[in-house]
Amino acid sequence: MSLTVRALGGEEIAAALGDLADLRIAVFAAWPYLYDGDRDYEARYLAEYAAAPDAVLVAAFDDGRIVGAATAAPMRHQKDAFRAPFEARGIATDALFYFGESVLLPQYRGHGVGHAFFDHREAAAMRAGATAACFAAVIRPEDHPERPEGHRPLDAFWQGRGYAPIDGLVTELAWKEHGAADETAKPMQYWIKRWG
């Protein structure tokens, strides 16, 4: 294993979107997202993300192959559903950076890639003038039938990075789960870190 992690820019982002779509479909198929991936949806979603000014894509490579990726972009360029919970509480989004997915193939976990993803995205947020960064994590009930035995949520990792959940700041996103006929809305808890 020869892992390197770096932020991509310009045409590199467009060239990596297909790999990112594949990673999202593969990684999010597992708990807690259980996502039944759709290549057409991925193409639309990722094209919209890539068009946002100051968007960043951080990629993890193993001998030149992308095995993980993380995204971020200014909150003002995100969907209304992402911004609305902040705006409803009077929290300005102009200086807020939104961290999208952070996906890594299972065999590469535990080697510091998650920290590198956050380091690169936080640096990009600061360069863009953001004073805080946030992300949303799916909320699943403790008794969900698909919860793996012994599952440990990432809360301790996020808290160690300086992030904290914002009490009551929840949005909803819809996606289709494996075995479901249609998309259903899932609650997503916002976490935030401020530095400015």
- Strand order, main sheet: write it out: 1-2-3-4-5-7-6
Structural class category: alpha+beta
Helix content: 25-40%
Number of strands: 7
Run of helices and strands: EHHEEHEHEHEE
Taking all Cα atoms into account, the compactness measure Rg is 16 Å
**How much of the sequence is in beta strands?**
25-35%
Task: Compute the separation of the termini in Å.
Answer: 38 Å
Number of helices: 5
Q: Compute the average pLDDT.
A: 93
Shape by Cα distribution: globular
Largest sheet: 7 strands, mixed
Poorly predicted segments: none
Tell me what you see in this structure.
There is one protein chain. The protein is α+β, with helices and mostly antiparallel strands and 196 residues long. The protein has five helices and seven strands. The chain has a seven-stranded mixed sheet, sandwiched between helices. The longest helix is centred in the N-terminal third of the chain and has 17 residues, at 11-27. The model has no long low-confidence stretch (mean pLDDT 93).
Explain briefly what this protein structure is.
It contains 5 helices and 7 strands; from the N terminus they run βααββαβαβαββ. By secondary structure, it is an alpha+beta fold.
